[in-house]
Amino acid sequence: MWRLHLVAVVALSSCASADRASPTVDLTTSVAPTTSIASVTSIASADGAALFAADSLGGEAGCSSCHSMQPDRSTSGPSLAGIGTIAATRVAELGAEHYLRQSILEPEAFFAPGWGAGMPAYSAVLSDTEADALVTYLLTIE
Ligand code: HEC
Questions:
Q1: What class has domain 39-139?
Q2: CA 127 to ligand 1 centroid distance, Å
Q3: What is the pLDDT of residues 6-18, one digit of tens each?
Q4: Domain ranges of the chain
Q5: Given this model, what pLDDT does residue 99 score?
Q6: Which pTM does this prediction carry?
Q7: How many CA atoms lie within 13 A of 7 on its CB side?
């Protein structure tokens, strides 16, 4: 009788691990299962909000580890509260969209007032689609 019980337990546990293997998650790079937000490889590349919230992007720190969306709350980077509007005012010849794209891909081209170097360049780790998705998302932050 105990043998049958053991078989049932083994069958149940293999079933549970199959459930965890969601097809959208890249198991070779995803982080520990206790972490709620996985790395960029498991996020639909067009979802700018999820990209912003990710713990890491292609090995670089995730945006939200340095940027808050709360006004006046600086961490390792400036608050991005209102950035969708502010972006248009930063560099005269750059529109908001262009400024945001440059901020992400070449952060050293222009520093936000009061800040110096400190943000990694994401030009090597983000695809065009991902950069577009992040810019589109940041433009919505009023
Ligand atoms: C290690 C910390 C760090 C990470 C990670 C980081 N940033 Fe930054 N970011 C900074 C710092 C410091 C500045 C200010 C200097 C500058 O403008 O480059 C900045 C500036 C910016 C600005 C310009 C803000 C303004 O007011 O003009 C934007 C937009 C921005 N970051 C977006 C992002 C996005 C999107 C990501 C993720 C792809 C990201 N950052 C990841 C530290 C970081």
A1: mainly alpha
A2: 18
A3: 444 444 444 444 4
A4: 39-139
A5: 98
A6: 0.77
A7: 4
